[in-house]
Design goal:
single chain, alpha/beta, 8-stranded parallel beta barrel, 14 helices, globular
């Protein structure tokens, strides 16, 4: 099968960047800050991303984490859509087992109607939280069943988006609206666009599934770096051309922070690392200040967690971050880099994306 690559998936490299650059936003809330301020920072960053030629802007679903205000990606994306006109917007991702497929089809059909031709639907199979919170979300304690049923849920969601359940199927008379049913109603006119589905993963399961289905794949390098190359290899080996893609297309999430001063970058990533230590040890909270991180007495176990976490964070001045991103793109062969900037300060996060854009000579305006 030969299919022309679709513009709604493949990005365009800008400036001297090795591959298209994009943004992953966790809507980070720092100590002393509010969720309102974090969401205003997201608007500032998405506007910069659009102006400077970042290809897409994704929001990740997380729950029960005080320092991450992105529990409702569809709501946030609707807000960001109102402040942009060109940049692609999407979920990085929606954790499908937490939701009924029909609900996601309706939400993203609505987003597509708001921002025609620039909405991505990235899907994951993890809960995006701890087990107790996942049980509350899913109204069941049989969490493994939700993950195991992911391919079936994905197939159901795809059918709702395309409105093509076969005759005799229990859902054949159910339609996701906004959606294709509107085009077949008397006098109906429907948008030709449908949000492309991406599969997200941090191991081999989704890599293999994305390849088998001929879908684009996004890998969470920022918290599963040891699995990045094996997962991308598996995706490429498993890939079968589809009506969506004629060849594999993979992006990776990258934790990177550029600052005007190298020392400031180190201070900021230590604060983000302390936040991760607390999360990993069952004490999630707001992202601490660098000053708090500097006075924190790390245990040996915590120091090891910090070393492991920070080893995969590209940080420093803009030229140092550029070197790290260039090396990572070359080493992994990723088709796109999606950058997440973790810092206590929203202003520093915004500045980081600006510095990276300047370093690569991305367009202005």
């Amino acid at each position: 099968m030969t299919v022309d690559p679709t513009d709604d998936i493949r990005g365009t490299r800008q400036g001297t960047a090795p591959v298209p650059l994009s943004v992953l936003d966790l809507v980070t809330v720092g100590a002393g800050r509010t969720a309102t301020q974090a969401l205003r920072t997201s608007v500032d960053i998405v506007r910069l991303a659009e102006t400077r030629g970042y290809h897409r802007y994704w929001v990740a679903e997380h729950h029960s984490m005080p320092g991450v205000a992105s529990s409702s990606p569809a709501v946030i994306l609707a807000h960001l859509a109102a402040h942009t006109t060109r940049v692609r917007l999407g979920s990085g991702g929606v954790m499908l087992p937490n939701h009924a497929p029909l609900v996601i089809a309706e939400q993203f059909g609505t987003l597509e109607a708001m921002a025609p031709g620039r909405v991505d639907l990235g899907l994951g199979r993890a809960p995006g939280t701890d087990g107790a919170t996942a049980a509350a979300l899913r109204r069941t304690d049989r969490l493994n069943e939700g993950a195991d049923e992911f391919p079936q849920q994905l197939a159901e969601l795809t059918r709702f988006l395309d409105d093509d359940f076969p005759d005799g199927h229990p859902y054949a008379r159910i339609h996701a609206v906004p959606g294709p049913i509107q085009a077949t109603s008397p006098g109906g006119v429907q948008s030709p666009n449908r949000p492309p589905i991406w599969l997200l993963g941090s191991s081999g399961f989704s890599a293999r599934l994305a390849g088998a289905l001929g879908l684009p794949f996004a890998f969470a390098h920022h918290f599963s770096a040891q699995n990045t190359v094996p997962a991308l290899d598996l995706y490429r080996e498993s890939f079968k051309p589809s009506a969506v893609l004629d060849a594999p297309y993979a992006l990776i999430g990258v934790s990177a922070l550029a600052t005007d001063d190298e020392q400031e970058a180190r201070r900021q990533i230590m604060a983000a690392a302390l936040n991760m230590v607390r999360l990993r040890t069952g004490r999630p909270g707001l992202v601490p200040t660098p000053e708090e991180a500097e006075t924190h007495e790390f245990t040996e176990m915590e120091r090891e967690l910090v070393r492991s976490w920070n080893s995969n964070v590209i940080h420093g001045t803009a030229d140092q971050v550029r070197t790290g991103l260039d090396d990572l793109a070359k080493r992994t062969g990723a088709d796109e880099l999606m950058i997440t900037a973790n810092a206590h300060s929203g202003e520093l996060r915004l500045r980081s994306y600006e510095l990276i854009a300047d370093e690569y000579g991305l367009p202005k305006g």
